[in-house]
Amino acid sequence: MYTLQSKWRYLIMFLGVQLVVMALLSREGYQKRVSYFFRIFRKPDSTTGHAVGTRNHTDVYANLSLLGPPVNKEDMPYCPKQSPLIGGPIHVTFPSGLTLAEIERKNTLVVRGGRYRPPNCEARHRTAVIIPHRNREHHLKFLLYYLHPFLQRQQLNYGIYIIHQAGNYTFNRAKLMNVGFREAMREEDWDCLFFHDVDLIPEDDRNTYACDAHPKHAAIAMDKFGYKLPYKMYFGGVSALTPEHYLKMNGFPNNYWGWGGEDDDIGIRVSLGGMVISRPSLNVGRYKMIKHKHDKGNEVNPKRFNMLAKTRHTWKNDGMNTVDYEIVSRDYQPLFTNITVNIGTEAGLHPPNKKTDS
Ligand code: UD2
Ligand code: MN
Q: What is the overall mean pLDDT for the chain?
């Protein structure tokens, strides 16, 4: 009798300890792991085999086979407001051995310079994607692999521009964006520009690559930050502005050489230009960043905090109205337009002291 009672006592103590552990685990930070644990016990969805309530990731190329036959230009209706090709979460992996030739083969409707129009309806949006670039060919390949079908699913009229910084002088992401803006607008009357890091892969095609009434920060939930916005004014990674937005804030700064600060400067410019930041929802603005180390030639900019403190005094005198550069080459590749540009150095486009130049 005595042993039975003590057995019960131990069982109750054991259950009590379990409860305390579960309660501790369910506190913030552990919530994801706990919900993952509970999901194991949920009923699987009979069609996909995934537990009900989880994200069903599809192959980014899957829906493109649903594109209808081409239609004569005169008979073309406007594309529907909501594209029927949208599928939600996209399965993102980085297979080895991927080649540009294979990406071309999978994107038969993309034409010279990385341009595309839906074959059977008139697109409602014209979007240019501007990608600052140097020595990241490996990342660029993955981005093109995912971005082309992603944009086609959204039935956009689009073009992809790679703005390649010539030489070895310190990288300048924001100035390259200014170059991209001017050169893309010179070619076509784009109504929206997406400024896009080369290493960020969108994970949900409901994240529409069209512009909003206010400048949009699209990369709000990245794996690198635990799929959360790191801070309220964050504007890095991927953002979208109309030409009007861009000119209202005098474009981006030209004087941030090296890593960091320029994204916050751009965020400040949005509000100095009298606008606010718009954002997609957290479960849609999701991105995977391809893991990488700091690049040689893009060292952390030690002046960034001092510069940020002065943005409100400098923004009107530095930006789109002062950008100077020289195009080295422009070539129309099958999957993108490449613009190689000399943006000079801190000492100017043709610094008298050639020591710092490339
Ligand atoms: C963060 C921001 C980025 C930018 C940067 C600071 C995220 C996801 N992104 O990126 O938007 O504000 O901090 O400058 O938080 N690049 C090259 N070659 C180089 C160096 C840079 O192509 O040698 C381009 C490329 O498109 C890259 C981007 O510049 O994605 C940003 O540079 P990063 O990826 O090294 O910086 P990261 O990931 O800290
Ligand atoms: Mn990066």
A: 89
**Per-position DSSP letters for 131-163, written without gaps between them:** EEESS-HHHHHHHHHHHHHHHHHTT-EEEEEEE
If one residue of 168, 197, 299, 304 were mutated to test the ligand 1 pocket, choosing by the most ligand atoms within 8 A of its CB, it would be 197
Q: pLDDT at residue 33 above 60?
A: no
Tens-digit pLDDT profile for residues 131-172: 999 999 999 999 999 999 999 999 999 999 999 999 999 999
Residues 6+ apart with CB under 8 A from 166: 328, 340, 341, 342, 343, 358
For the segment 92-130, what is each residue's pLDDT rounded down to a tens digit?
A: 999 999 999 999 999 999 999 999 999 999 999 999 999
Q: 70 near 116, Cβ under 8 Å?
A: no
Structure tokens at 321: 């109205």
Element (DSSP H or E) covering residue 307: helix 304-309
Q: Residues enclosing ligand 1, CB less than 6 A? A: 132-136, 171, 173, 197-200, 222, 236-237, 259-260, 262-263, 289, 295, 297-298
- Cα dihedral sign, 173-176-178-183: negative
What is the band of 23 on the pLDDT scale with cuts at 50, 70, 90? Answer: low
Which one of the ligands is nearest to 295 CA? 1
Nearest-CA residue for ligand 1 atom 19 is 134
Which pair of tokens denotes residue 330?
């422009």
CA angle at 39 for the pair 34 and 45, rounded to the nearest 5°: 165
Task: Please say whether the beta carbons of 328 and 183 come within 8 A.
Answer: no
- Look up the pTM and report it: 0.86
DSSP label of 250 = T
The sheet with strand 200-202 has its strands ordered as 200-202, 286-289, 221-222
